[in-house]
Amino acid sequence: MPDIRLEQVSKVYPGGVTAVDAVSLDIRDGELMVLLGPSGCGKSTTLRMIAGLEPITTGRLWIGERLMNEVDPKDRDLAFVFQSYALFPHMTVAGNLAFGMRIRGVPRAEAGRRLQEVAATLGLTELLERKPGQLSGGQRQRVALGRALLRDPVAFLLDEPLSNLDAKLRAGMRTELIKLHRRVGRTMIHVTHDQVEAMTMAERICIMRDGRIVQVGAPMEVYRNPADTFVAGFLASPPMNLLDARIEPEGAGALVIAHGLRVPLPGALPPGPVTLGLRPEEVTLAPDGAARIALDTVTQAVEALGPEVILVGALGDPRGPEVSWRMPRDFTAAIGQPVRLWLDPTTVRLFEAKSGVAIALSWPKP
Amino acid sequence: MAAGLARRDRRFGLLMAGPGLAAMLLVVLFPLVFTAWTSLYEFTLLRPVHDLFVGLGNFAAALDDGGFRHALRVTLAFVVAVVLLEFLLGLVVALALDSVERGRAVYYAILLCPLLMNPVVVGLIWRMFLHPTQGIVNYVIGLAGIAPVNWLGDPAVAFWTLVAVDIWHQVSFMVVLLLAGLAALPPEPYEAARMEGAGPIRAFFWITLPLLRPVITVTLLIRLIFAVRTYDLVYIMTRGGPGNATDLVSYFIYRQAFVTLNLGRAAAMSLVLLAIVLLLTAWLHRYMRSLRA
């Protein structure tokens, strides 16, 4: 199966609004790519341009060696799953599933066999005679997926398919989709604004903002090394703590200082203001070999989530900037109580103060 | 406490609705009861007293009356013709307008003009337009070399002329309702169909028509109910003629009452017409309730 390639693809609406701005992206055959970003970032428009539901203003879209800009959606051999499922309300589940095969003239016997097969896979066999109005959200979702599966396409395009489901169902469907992807082995492009969905499902995440791609990479890669403060603040909940800080030279290296917190850095960095990023889980309650920088937090709230506790507090003193830390589940602290935590300096991330772009740090190999 | 509050609310509601209710009783219920009462008597405008009870005699005479039965048949033909033609034409125009993006308000305004006109005015205007020797219609077709047509005077033509004028007057009703129905259709099923390779014709027959069915049914029924009662156009344009070619039942009943002066018979005929309209309305009501379920 071919790759899908976007070259400098842009979408400008008649009013002059640029929804997608020179996006270049390679989606490899069989990959599960998640387009992630806040609403209005252009991720859905990008997907719809790939599908052919929106014309591409400038740039090129390739599927394999074929330029697709002017190709009719039906000839792109892609299946689209809509956020609202887009089922035909007047047709039964069977009618909805068979719609595409009827149009493509698949022989009746074969269509029936494949329909039964897909219905069985998705657990829809009992529902074939129902109309969409008589189905739950999760069942409708499965019908929409079934319709896509029956297409047997080059790639599946999924436009926020889980966002209309309640939280519990969503987690279940997430797993179902991952399994489905593994079974069919086809490319999937999944659009979502939910970072948990992106982290759990994606082989690679493409994070978008204001019509541009900010970062593309494997989930943990993006998580560990966010390209800028936007990505750092968007992924995970609670997100990375971002603190105003400054760099000062110290001996052969440098120090980053944020409200009393002093972290030594490798190499000579130019002094000046920066943003310091600290992941909430990168602190411990007791010092060990790596975690050797002391850090005080004045407790403001303790949120017990069950498997863990989120400590929300002020860094350094009660007037310090707000920070959140992940603590073990038996952690407790009184409001106003200072808590001493320990930090491994190699886990800190630095960003340019103005642009927010990440600054590379080269720690010596241990 | 709460019960007292509810009672006071109810009493206040009745007080507020009272005058309107009384007016309705006076102008709607009273004529209805009077008509029903009169239909059971030999009651003419020459002898307007309820002293000769004939039971269902007026109904039997009405149904036995060849003129009345003819009027019912003409009305049926008229209703079927206008509703069907207006629907087809309205749907075509609505579909065309649905894809218009700029200046839709202008088209709307133009379309609504005939609908805003009083039927009497419509009849008068078209009577002038269609005048066999002085009318602009014959003048224009004359320019194309077509012989003049006696639009309202030829028994074979007059019925269709009436149908055409009614279409001119009422087609916008269909357009506006169907257009609203089209605008309310969700876009996603169309996109899904497009991904599957359905062209515009398939999309129309497989998606638009079935999804639009409730709107279509309601529109047809409402138009049907109004078309059954058509009176003004006939009164102004043809007076039921030539002969009795356009003798719609409303006009026939009017003549029965105020030309023949047989009010008892006319009342019975009105009740027959009322029964037909009520039946259609009940059907509409039931359908709309089934939609909500």
Characterize the structure shown:
The complex is a heterodimer of chains A (366) and B (293). Chain A is of the alpha+beta class and 366 residues long. Chain A has two domains: 4-229, Rossmann fold; 241-359, Beta Barrel (OB fold (Dihydrolipoamide Acetyltransferase, E2P)), CATH 2.40.50.140. In chain A, 24% of the residues lie in helices and 35% in strands. Chain A contains eight helices and 21 strands. In chain A, the strands form four sheets. Chain A has a six-stranded mixed β-sheet with strand order 6-7-8-3-9-10, sandwiched between helices. A six-stranded antiparallel β-sheet of chain A has the order 13-12-11-14-20-21. In chain A, a hairpin with a 6-residue loop joins strand 17 (308-315) and strand 18. The radius of gyration of chain A is 25 Å and the shape is elongated. The model of chain A has no long low-confidence stretch (mean pLDDT 91). Chain B has 293 residues and is an all-alpha fold. Chain B has a domain at 65-265: MetI-like (MetI-like fold, Orthogonal Bundle). Chain B has twelve helices and no strands. Chain A binds chain B through residues 51-53, 73-75, 78-80, 82, 84-91, 99-100, 103-104, 147, 151, and chain B through 186, 188-189, 191-198, 202, 206-207, 210-211, 213.
SSE topology:
The complex is a heterodimer of chains A (366) and B (293).
Chain A: E1 4-12, E2 18-27, E3 32-36, H1 43-51, E4 58-63, E5 66-67, E6 78-81, H2 93-104, H3 108-122, H4 137-151, E7 155-159, H5 167-184, E8 187-192, H6 195-201, E9 204-209, E10 212-217, H7 219-224, H8 229-234, E11 241-250, E12 253-258, E13 261-265, E14 272-278, E15 283-284, E16 293-304, E17 308-315, E18 322-328, E19 338-343, E20 349-352, E21 358-359
Parallel strand pairs in A: 3-8, 3-9, 6-7, 7-8
Antiparallel strand pairs in A: 1-2, 1-4, 4-5, 9-10, 11-12, 11-14, 12-13, 14-20, 15-19, 16-17, 16-19, 17-18, 20-21
Chain B: H1 2-38, H2 57-64, H3 66-98, H4 104-116, H5 119-129, H6 136-143, H7 155-183, H8 188-196, H9 200-228, H10 232-237, H11 249-258, H12 263-292
Helix pairs in contact in B: 2-12, 3-7, 3-9, 3-11, 4-7, 7-9, 9-12, 11-12
